[in-house]
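Hi there, hope your week has been kind to you so far. Do you reckon you could talk me through the fold, stretch by stretch? I've dropped the whole record in just underneath, so have a look:
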Amino acid sequence: MRNVARLGLRLLLIALVAGVLLGVTDYFTRGPIKTQELARAEQARKDAFAAADSFELLTDAALSGDVKEIYQAKKAGMSAGYVVSVAPKGYGGAITMTVGVDPSGTVVGVIIGSNSETPGLGKRASEPSFYNQYVGKSGTFSLKDDGNTKIDGLTGATISSRAVTSGVNQAVEAAMQCEKGESAK
């Protein structure tokens, strides 16, 4: 019985030390991790709308669907368009994207952030050869030729292709709603 108590005390001590070490590590790494996340998000906005020199978060914008944030892209202090963060659900979970849209509704850039899709299939949505199909085009995007702007889907990754297309469509729609609100002011 005495051995069991000693073993239990040792296990308790090891768990306590491990818990304290994890807590201290979290305390010291939380700030730098948040700083890196903010820097990555700022870089994604710059990459999605290269012509802009600053971005202003639109806190009064109505967010719907998979839209997470909307920024007004500015060039020399004037509105140049919008950068919209969206996270549509793909096969392996949410695909985070940053989409730049000019005032006419033309996509000027698409950046794929986190993508937990199937390697070799849906993961290819993160390749420029796929997401650059949207750049320079406007309208409603579709994977089939139905009069909308046709996008070639990824073979074997229809769900991922649909998710990215849905995300871009939602971003364009959100940007155009903001543009209508901006022009009405």
Summary: The mean pLDDT is 88. Strands lie at 54-57, 67-75, 78-86, 95-101, 107-115, 141-142, 149-150. Residues 85 and 98 are 5 Å apart (CA to CA).
